[in-house]
Amino acid sequence: MKNKRDIAIFTMFGLAVFAGLLLFFSKINPLVVYDADDWLYVYELRKPIPLIHAWNPTKVFPETFMPLASYFGALVINPRINNYCFSLTLAHALFSSLILTLYFVHFPILFYKREFASFKSSVIYGCFFFLLHFISHMVNGRNNPFALWSENLTCFYNYTLPVALNAALVMHFMIYGGSKKWFEKSNLIHKFVVAVWIYFALNSNLYSSVVLATYIGTELFLILKRELKEKSFDLKTYCGCNWFNLLIIFCWVGTNILELFGGRAGGMQKSFIINLPITMGMGVFSLVGKNIFLTILDIFVFVSWRKLHNKKLTPTAERFLYYIGFGLIYLTFLSAAVEPTYIFRPQITICSFFYIFMGMIACLNELKKTNSKYKRAPLVLLGTLGLLFVFPGHLFCPYNYSILSYDKCEVLTNDIISQFNEAEQEGKSEIVLEIPKFTQEGNWPLSDFIGERYANALYKHKITKSYITVKDLIITEEKNRELDIPMGKQLFSL
């Protein structure tokens, strides 16, 4: 930073982003522990290293920090506020806000330190970048998914937060002019911090780590392309000059190989060839199948920028096309192997949207320098306000599969706790637990095996003093009526 004033303003920007995210994830659209997966990962700690033959061999980041945040909420926050459900929500909101603040603050710093824009413009672009993540998929006034949304808390830790972690690392390298220049300029402590950062970024999720892999891979590819064109390529020299990037790519390939030997890989689709064209179509549609006004802005900005450069690509534009292209190809193949519809999920599309948002704002910044009229282009997004009057209600889709309000999720959690507490007070070591009925197979999202997970979580989080075994699980519609919980998703209930 050039002066203390700039540092102070960026600090204020970061604090404002953190406060806004904390408010959003704890009050406006709270993160909540709800389904069977959530209740497993709030207590089950794994070794923070890749584990061959585990269900998810390389999901170190989500399966380490989700339970750690949960234990913090249960053991540190809950004794002070005496509200277990909200204690977990607050703990996850705090941790998520920290990771996402790291992501959002890097964006304006990148624009400012690389002198893409003035200090004032960089902060404005940072605010714009922040806003885009919340209106990205808005189509009406109720239950809209958005770039930071996931179906449940587990997916939020498995997909959304890892994307932010990887994308923030990409921008960190960009600030220095690339990972190679960063390595040359950074001191030993900085290198250690980033090494830990890289470790958790790569060992997070295959869908998310591709954000870093495409950035590093593109750097390597363009150097190779240039040297081959100039007929100066030498393998030994190439590897020696790019060892750091090659190491990151080799580690990323290693995580892909390890995942092939995990339990999760056993459920991969066998009809890959059939799924591939379907997934390709859905992948292309995912880039435009979003907020119509944002799509219009993207098209207008990119077309205008292309005309400005006489339909020629600049080196920077070429890089971004490779970032998006390589990423989309990988996500398409991975989704075709796992589940074609994955590529259309917001927590997956954010991998491409990150580069698209950055590229669109960079093009808009360049257009604005040539003609001030372009600064009015984002006003087209005001059309989003008109969408709010279509089926008005709770604006954002909740972080749970049943699309229940937070209050109902909290009532459900308190009912489960009361059943365990009642059994404990009566001196019982076993319980017949009653839970609501759902129409999906296996009673998902409160699956027919959730009893043991409730018991483990409540005991390890010190809600019960002794371990109480769930002898039998009764799935009954009576609980639905008692707790006012529908048996299926209620898209228009909030």
From TrEMBL:
The chain crosses the membrane at residues 7-25, 81-105, 117-136, 156-175, 206-224, 244-262, 282-308, 320-338, 344-365, 377-396. Keywords: Membrane, Transmembrane, Transmembrane helix. This is Glycosyltransferase RgtA/B/C/D-like domain-containing protein. It comes from Pseudobutyrivibrio xylanivorans DSM 14809.
